[in-house]
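In this section we walk through a basic example: taking a raw amino acid sequence and producing a predicted 3D structure, encoded as discrete structure tokens. The instruction is simple. Fold the sequence below.
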Amino acid sequence: MVEGGKSEIGRTDAGPGGHRYMITSLDRTHAGFYRCIVRNRMGALLQRQTEVQVAYMGSFEEGEKRQSVSHGEAAVIRAPRIASFPRPQVTWFRDGRKIPPSSRIAITLENTLVILSTVAPDAGRYYVQAVNDKNGDNKTSQPITLAVENVGGPADPIAPTIIIPPKNTSVVAGTSEVTMECVANARPLIKLHILWKKDGVLLSGGISDYNRRLTIPNPTGSDAGFYECEAVLRSSSVPSVVRGAYLSVLEPPQFVKEPERHITAEMEKVVDIPCRAKGVPPPSITWYKDAAVVEVARLNRFRQRGDGGLQISGLVPDDTGMFQCFARNSAGEVQTSTYLAVTSIAPNITRGPLDSTVIDGMSVVLACETSGAPRPAITWQKGERILASGSVQLPRFTLLESGSLLVSPARISDAGTYTCLATNSRGVDEASADLVVWARTRITRPPQDQSVIKGTQASMVCGVAHDPRVTIRYVWEKDGAALGVENNPRVRLDKNGSLHITQTWSGDIGTYTCRVLSAGGNDSRSAHLRVRQLPHAPEHPVATLSTSERRAINLTWAKPFDGNSPLIRYVLEMSENNAPWAVLLASVDPEATSVVVKGLVPARSYQFRLCAVNDVGKGQFSKDTERVSLPEEPPTAPPQNVIASGRTNQSIMIQWQPPPENHQNGLLKGYIIRYCLAGLPVGYQFKNITDADVNNLLLEDLIIWTNYEIEVAAYNSAGLGVYSGKVTEWTLQGVPTVPPGNVHAEATNSTTIRFTWNAPSPQFINGINQGYKLIAWEPEQEEEVTMVTARPNFQDSIHVGFVSGLKKFTEYFTSVLCFTTPGDGPRSSPQLVRTLGGTVPGPVGHLSFSDILDTSLKVSWQEPGEKNGILTGYRISWEEYNRTNTRVTHYLPNVTLEYRVTGLTALTTYTIEVAAMTAKGQGQVSASTISSGVPPELPGAPTNLGISNIGPRSVTLQFKPGYDGKTSISRWLVEAQVGVVGEGEEWLLVHQLANEPDARSMEVPDLNPFTHYSFRMRQVNIVGTSPPSQPSRKIQTLQAPPDMAPANVTLRTASETSLWLRWTVGVVGEGEEWLLVHQLANEPDARSMEVPDLNPFTHYSFRMRQVNIVGTSPPSQPSRKIQTLQAPPDMAPANVTLRTASETSLWLRWTPLPEMEYNGNPESVGYKIKYSRADGHGRVLSHVVLDRVEREYTIEDLEEWTEYRVQVQAFNAMGNGPWSQMVMGRTRESGTAPPEPATPWLPRICGRDTPTFVSLPSGLPKGTNLEQWFYLTFQKHNHIEDLEEWTEYRVQVQAFNAIGNGPWSQMVMGRTRESGDLGDGLAGQSQAAARSSPGAGLRQVLYREKDSDPQPRVWLVEGNSSLSVQLTGLGKYVLYEVQVLAFTRIGDGSPSRPPVLERTLDDVPGPPMGILFPEVRTTSVRLIWQPPAAPNGIILAYQITHRLNATTANTASVEVLAPSARQYTATGLKPESVYLFRITAQTRKGWGEAAEALVVTTEKRGDCPWGWGGLKGS
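The resulting token sequence is shown next.
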């Protein structure tokens, strides 16, 4: 037999020495393992296997290969693959020369060539020669070309690397030797050393081949372990490298226990054949029968035990044969064998059936015990009918394992003769007996366990079925003693055996047994009677402070009498700080006698009481515990809304709000503020605020422009609380303290100076460098500077800037300064620079005449203001007025500043011109007229001022020139009073006109629109300026369109067809009005001041003036724009009113805060409402309204006909404002009529086309302020008309006046409301209309469920003079909106506003909805549900009961859950049972209708017909 399935590949010969198997024409396919099978009449055996090996050698793989390696690295060249058996001897060659192993060359056990620390000469062609030493074949491989790269680089050391690591190796014990190898590389290779370790212990023996190989001779089990190869580079700090592998030593199998050589067993018995072996690894056991594998997994009667033995059950004759046990592992195999013989015996009935009598319904066993082999088959017969056998079994007839017959239950028809037949292959045996069956008396309707409430009646039935000819007698017992029915009038026995007990009490509790006595048999059934009552109050309640937990109180009590019904729960109530009692825990474990109340608030006192609850109801409350006070604790929450804001460059203002009240843990004593430099390893500084009402602090004496980390913590008598999160803030910027460095200035042309400088060190800038100011001024004129601002350049070290527009050829002092937002730093040292020349000079200065005679006069002048170069002289010329042919010209030296003109004609007017000269030529001429012999004088004032062409920004002045002073007028001046006109008001120069001596009118530009002006004029000649003219009449410039758009435009929904638009006008900027907000007197040395009484969260820009005894200075430059911090609101909501809405609700209205009173971010503004009973009973409740523009709220869930007091306050992110005045209101008495509809007002729409003007009605409600008239334009996506419901619109606003329109504001979006929504924008007059025309008598009452019905329902009222109607058919506990409108044949009037909100009364709720069982197990189920579709009130609790469906309701388990519960898990159920679950909801009117569902406790959901709950009503 060839293992692996091959057969008939050779032939078998028999000889004197035994049998041989011969293989002819041997080839590679004949290699494998062979076994010999020996057979005789006893069976067959497998002999040991024999391996046949066939030597062969294939060819190397084709193709030349190339391989490269970096210089100094190891080259690993793997031998080409070749198929061969046995493994060939391999020799490596390089360029024809054999390569022997050396310190640099390693040839591994796998014939891999490894060249260590490669160098350039290692490059070449390598190949291998393989020799098969069995058949002598010799093959040579294709060459492998190796290239060495990166040659010529530095020979840096290379850390050790293990190239060929040791491999996990297995060897059979007794092998001659085993070798492990490890090849490593490093540079320098000479310092590489390889160490071998076993399980961490250094080895010294068996190491060879330059320490690359470890040889272990004759390995045994002790040689097994973990071997490590460590490569070390000696005399170097480079870490060593370690690799390891496991050596496993295998041991061939050895038998520990073998079967006996011969085993005998009877048929159908069980036999165990032992076989246990050991070895490494543990051997596997395989069984063979007659040389065939015993397939244990497929044969049910065969089982292989854990120790390897074979067990055979139900032996049959075919089991006889040779059994072999083979033990195999990877080290070998052993086998042992045994012979199994199976025997047989004829059947024999050793114990036969006996004649028997049984009562109908009872069980009976007819015996039939046998012996024999094989085991006899048993058959029971009644007559010819087979009742039970190995293949047949009728109902009620059971063949037992012993062979006996069980008849259960017996019936009258079962009477007769029964025969037992025992049969096997050796024969048959039989035995018979007679069975007699009697009819039986039995209780068919037994009494059931009863659980009744004290004082009610209990009834127990006892129904009996019996033979009519048998007389029966009833006997009732209680707790085992006969019940005296005759002497107890409360106990009555019916003739049918039922027992009735009236007026039950605790003495009736016990077990009641009904006994039935008769000749047909006796029967008895018992049931327990339980009388339930309310539980007693828990006893001895004691409350003490917990010693193990903070903020906890231990409450203990004694368990009360449970009223003969298991307690369902305890209800625990608590009173905090003498407040009314409130339920703390609605469901305390009924088994508990103590509870730890956690989460209490320190520094508050508590009192407790509790009551027990069973299924009858809730018992009396216990006595109140002594009041226990919790000690104070440090605050557990930090102060809130901590805000820091830099106030000056050395101060920061901090604001905060106290911690939440429930975290203050006592009376606050104050606050600790700690602060330090942000990001620096410095300690904290502390400030202690000892007044808890103070919630701000100004940190002073800080470092300029420095970032600080600030934290705030509150403290009380118990200690310091939690610090707030770190708030970082910078002190404000200061001005630089040093000037720029290396300043250099030079002129680049006649009007420009170039500056270069270096930035000052950042540490001296004291803020953010905003840039540099380049300054130039003429000597002696420091007040008149030319300044250019240069942006900072953070990339270049040298900054460059230019100042242009300077005077030509003029000396300037130059300087540079650095500035920050607060101001300028010091200037650099002034440098004197002259601009370049290059153009003709300007006009000479102060041309004047003196010593005027008939024939001569003296002309004087000054050097030109703009020399534009070196003056070379002056040219002076004169001529008679308008007679150029009389011109006389003289040229004067540059030092001459006066000249006497002679040869003039007396009383003649002359024009005299003077001009300066440079190398570029003659400059601008200065000219004037003068009469010889007549000296010039000051001019007179202009007269006859007239105003025409009045526009928004200009007017035209007509005037008559005044006396010219005997010389020409060089300039006209216009002065004006602006805004306020009158004596003593300031005159401002608003315009001047030069070189127009003949002017008689002029245009005055750059005026302000719609502003009052009064003008006056002066005229100027060479002598000076005239007095002013008489003021003109007061005029007002015309209007002009606004220059800016409205700001802060917002759009909100008002109603279904209207939107509410708001905007503001004016921002901080040029042209805005400046108001005096503060003044400080008698502080001449002040350098800073606090400006009080500002508005919170408001933008400001400041400027200052200083005052001395002479007057007030001009204003300073405006400061930067800032915004003050937020603060709590300063005022309470106004016009608070409270009206009755229904029996349980009040309607509160108020006027929202004006926007300027928000004192903070509008998004954080809202309102708080607090309300309580006016008599002081009950708790103070509150509600928060988060909408800042909300103006009404309905307070619900109040008590009927009860007076309440209500207050409203505004709040923002910083805190709460003051409370409003208290208002009082009373809820309605049940059944009273609703109040009359109110009549609100709204602006009326007066036009249908755009533009649409909105006007207000003439009769405005009292207190209404008309803030603005406004003009609206609606732009819709299609066409323009009255607004539609639920439509989005785009809206813009512009200001306009009689002249025109200003710019449009930013566009805002808004959507009208859906029909039926509430809003302030709908007006109606229905109530007024109904009362003014009672004769009409036609009205509609519109009503709908608030937030549910999309459209109102209509109730028609005709001819009702009482103006009232009762609406019926409404839902229970539903909030309705009710409106009334009158209508005529023309149409409907407007519905009354606002709608009356009225809620119907509550009732018991409907059944919960949607019961599902998402998780069903054998002992537990989880059910979920939804609230009732008709809650009919506020749900207070849910009650869940469950019981076996076959039992009565008295056995149900009850659980009461909180109103928020939506799921429940029932545990401890019986597997595979049907349970009925009932869920009921509770309102204050009581428990409502129940919902029921059935579920089967099973893991197989598919088999459960009620898997998702079979619902049914109750």
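Looking at the output, two observations stand out. The first strand starts at residue 11 and ends at 15. The radius of gyration is 60 Å. In the next section we compare this with other chains.
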